[in-house]
Amino acid sequence: MSEPFLAEIRMVGFDFAPRGWSFTDGQILPIAQNQSLYSLLGTIYGGDGRTTFALPDLRGRTPIHRGISEPLGYKAGVETVTLSIDEIPEHRHEIYAQDQPGNNRSPAGRYLGMPASASNGTYSDGSELLETTLLSGTISNTGGSQAHDNMQPYLAVSFCIALQGLFPSRN
Hints:
171 residues, two-stranded antiparallel sheet, mainly beta, elongated
């Protein structure tokens, strides 16, 4: 690896932080032993700013480029979501029925017919019709208000931040 900039973040495909690097796991570091690194990061990612500061914590996070509505260090999003009734689009479950004989080859709307009696089989000639209650009651809310995963497809790799390296110049 070429010499990194101090505070540079890289992705690596192995499970250890190389010498001079640390995982981006939000570790709290002492300012006194890391003054150059603190001068770049400050308390953007945490710490008290008097004796400590924090490294970025990318565990379970997707890094994005900073912007106007997402300044450096901004965190948003959650790994799981519990939907409320207000978040589910309004919808209905309607049942339609036809009073045409069940043996009609092309009933309007192509709805299933009800046989006149069990002995007539699945389809009847329509000479006898049975009254059938399709639904006695109402449909109510269901579910258990359980959280579900809310994550895009991902592949876990290691993110490391340089604790040593070239101090980046502004221009």
